[in-house]
Amino acid sequence: MPASIEMMDEIVHNNNRKKKVVVLGGDVAAGYFVKEFVEAGRGAEVCIITHEPELPYEHSTLSKDFLWKENPARLPSFLVPLSAGAADAGGVVQTAEWYEENGVEVITSTKIAKVDAVKKTLSTLSGTCIEYDRLVIATGCSAPHFPEGRDSYGKLLTGVFNFCNHADATQLYQFMEDSWNSAKVAHSNPCNAVVVGGDSVALELAASLAAWGFPVHMIVPDQHLMSDLWPKELADLYEAELRARGVTLHAGARVAKVVEGEPGHA
Predict the structure, then answer these.
(1) Contact, 79 vs 93, CB < 8 A?
(2) Are the CB atoms for 199 and 230 separated by under 8 Å?
(3) Average pLDDT, the chain
(4) Residue 135 in this model has a pLDDT that exceeds 90
(5) Mutual angle of helices 200-212 and 232-244, in 10-degree steps
(6) 142-175 as b/e: b if 16+ CB within 10 A
(7) How much is the pLDDT for 84?
C-alpha cells in the first residue's frame, strides 16, 4: 500500500536511506516516468510523492467518463495504465501491488512546503525532510483561486466548484446526481449549470452536464473556445456542436460577481 506521512520518518531517516529520484505529482506524467525506470530495472531508485490520497491516475478521465450518468468510470479503472489505452480498454494499470512489486515507493496525502535545491532536500508541511539526488516536478497545474466565487473567509460558495482533482470531481458528481434526482421527484427542471472557462476541460464539462439534461451556460473569457490552440474555424465547429446539445455560450465574457442563492448563481 502507498506510504503515508506517518511512515515517512521510518522510510527516510530510520533506514538512513534516500531516493536517487523523487517525482512530485500524481498524474500520468509521474506514472509514465516511473514506468520507464521500472522497465529499466531501477524501480527501487524512485519515489513518487503526491498530495492526493489516490495513487497516480489519469486526471483527464474526470471531465469525461467519470461524469457519465450511466456507468461512470471509477477508480481503480483509470489509474495510470501500463500501456497506452490500457485503461480505456479495461487493461492493466499501475496498482499499489505493481508499485510494491517493482520497489517503487508511493507517498500519498503529502504536500511539499519547501524545496532546497542546494541541499537537495524536500520539506513537507508537517516538517519531515526527504533527501534526493534528482527531483522531477510533474505536478501539472492547479485550478484558479476564483475569488468571485468565495466568501470573505476564502471558502467556495454553495453551488460553486473547483474542478482539478478526484475529490473535486466526486463532489461535483454528487451534487449533479442530487440535483437531478431532486428535480425528478419535484417534476421540475434541473438547475442551470454554469461552466467558467474555454479550454478542453471546460468544453468536456459542459458536454457532460448537457448529457445529463442540465441547461448549461459557458462563460468563455476569450472570443472563442480553445483560443490558444484552435483557429476560429475549428472552434466554430465545436461551438455549433455544443449549441446543438443545448449549451449556451457567452464568448468574451467574464464573471464579475457570484451571488449565493439556492444553490448559488452567477
Answers:
(1) yes
(2) no
(3) 88
(4) yes
(5) 20
(6) eeeeeeebeeeeeeebebbbbbbbbeebeebbeb
(7) 62
In the structure grid, which three cell numbers stand for residue 137, read together?
A: 516536478
Q: Which residue has the cell 467519470?
A: 66
Question: In the predicted model, is pLDDT for residue 86 greater than 70?
Answer: no
Look up the pTM and report it.
0.85
State the sign of the Cα–Cα–Cα–Cα dihedral 118, 140, 19, 42: negative
Query: Please, where are the H alpha helices in the chain?
Result: 8-9, 28-39, 96-101, 166-185, 200-212, 232-244
User: What CA–CA distance (Å, rounded) separates 11 from 140?
Assistant: 26
What pLDDT, on a 0 to 100 scale, did the predictor assign at position 235?
A: 96
SS3 for 146-174, per residue?
CHHHECCCCCECCCCCCCCCHHHHHHHHH
Integer Cα distance of 212 and 143 in angstroms: 24
Q: How confident is the model at residue 91 (pLDDT cuts 50, 70, 90)?
A: low
Kindly state the helix (H) or strand (E) to which residue 129 belongs, with its residue range: strand 129-137
